[in-house]
Fold:
Amino acid sequence: MPILVSDFEDLTDDLQSIFNEVASKKVAQNVGFDIFNTFDTDRRTYDHLVLHGVAGIKRVTPGQDLPKINAKEGDTITFTQEYFGGQVDITKAMRKFDLHNQINSIVTSVTEDAFDKVDQSLADRLLYGWSTTYTDVYGDSVAAIGPDSLALFSAAHSNPITTAVFSNIISDGTNTNPPLSRQAIVYMRAQGFKHKDPNNLTRSINYDVVVYGPDLEDLADRILNSEYLPGSANNDKNPLKGKVRGKMWPRLGTRSDGTDTGAYWFMYDSTGVGESLQCLFAERPSLDAPDVVYANKNWEYTLDFFYTIGVGYPAYVAGSKGDNS
Amino acid sequence: MSTNIDWAKLVSEGRAKAVGIGWDEKELEAIHKNKMSADDVRAGFFTKAQKEKYLEKHKELPLDKMAKKDLVKIAKELKIEFNEKVVSAGDLAIVIKQKQEETKGTK
Structure:
C-alpha cells in the first residue's frame, strides 16, 4: 500500500522510533562517552580555565583578610561548537511502492553513521594525541592543542608559574611509548601518585584504567585480571587485580585515516579524566521531520547536531604508541 | 572543532614559539634540557656553544635573532609607536628595519 501524504505523521513516528532505538544502542556501545566528560552547553564558544594548583590557602589569624586566590596561575582554552548533519530523502518511489524496508535501512544507517563518527572523533583525539593538528573523521583539519599549546601527549607540559614540566607519555622507566606491559603500568602508577603541581604540592593521579584496542585485549586481560602474577614461578599474587581495570575500545585499533594503531594504549585516572578530555554538545543528534514537502516530492528528514571536543589539563590521561619511540 | 588558546600569553611566558606556533620536540629539549632561553631558541640557538660560536663570528645578533626586550629598547630609541604587549618580535624587527632604512636614506 502506498505511503500517502496522510501517512506522513505515522511515518515520522516510525522513523523517530528507529532513530531512538539505534541511537540508544550506539550510545551504549560507544566507549568514548564513558571516558570523555560529555555534557551539554548552550554556548557556542565555551571558555575553560585550567588551574595548575593555586598557592591560595594559608593560615589566617582572626580578623586578618583571607588571602586572594587569583587565576593568574591558570591557562585558558576556548572550545567552539561545530555543526554536523545529513539529510535522508524519502523519495516518492519509496512511498509509492511502500519500500518500508529501504526507508528503515537508510534511517538506521545514517543514525549509526552519526554516532560512529562522533565516537571515532573521540578515539582519534587519543590516537592523534602526539600531533598538534590532524584531519578528523569528517575530513576537516583540527587543531589538537591543549591549553599549553602542546599536543595532548607531550614530554614537556608547562605551566605559567614555574619552569617545571611534566610528561604524560607513558614510560616503563627505560623507554617512552613502550608496548603494553605490567612494568609500564606499575611505573606509570608510581609516577602518577608522585605527580606534583607547580607549587610543589603532591597532587596524586591514580591511573586506574587502561584503555586499549582489540589487539591488546588478551594481553591486557592477563596483566590486569589474572589472580596470580603472570609469568612468575612462585605464584605471587597479582597486585594490579582490583586496582586497575581494563577497557577495550574497538576504535583504538585503527585511526580514521586507516593507520593501524593496534599497539597504542592509554591510562587514565577515572576521577580526573573529565578535566583532561571533554566532549561538549550544544545539540545532541536528533532526527527531524521536514516542515514542507518539496517540489521533487522527496520528504527530506534531517539528522543534525552541534558538538566539539576539548582538552583541558592533560595530566589525567597518558598515552603510548607501543613502539618504544 | 576549533580550539583557541591565549597564544600571546604563552609566547610572553616563553611557552610557545610564536602566536599560532608551539614548540617542537627539539626546541622543547633545548629549553628544558639545555636550559636555553625561549628567545635564544626562537633565534635558532639550541645550545650555549651554538650561540657563542655565532657571536664570535658575527659579533652581534641581527634584528631577526634579537630578543623582544632588546627590540623594544631599539624601537623606543627610534621613537616607533607600538603596543608592547601585543606586538610580536618578528613584526617589531620588520618595523625597526624599515625605520633604520628610512633614516639611512634621509642622511
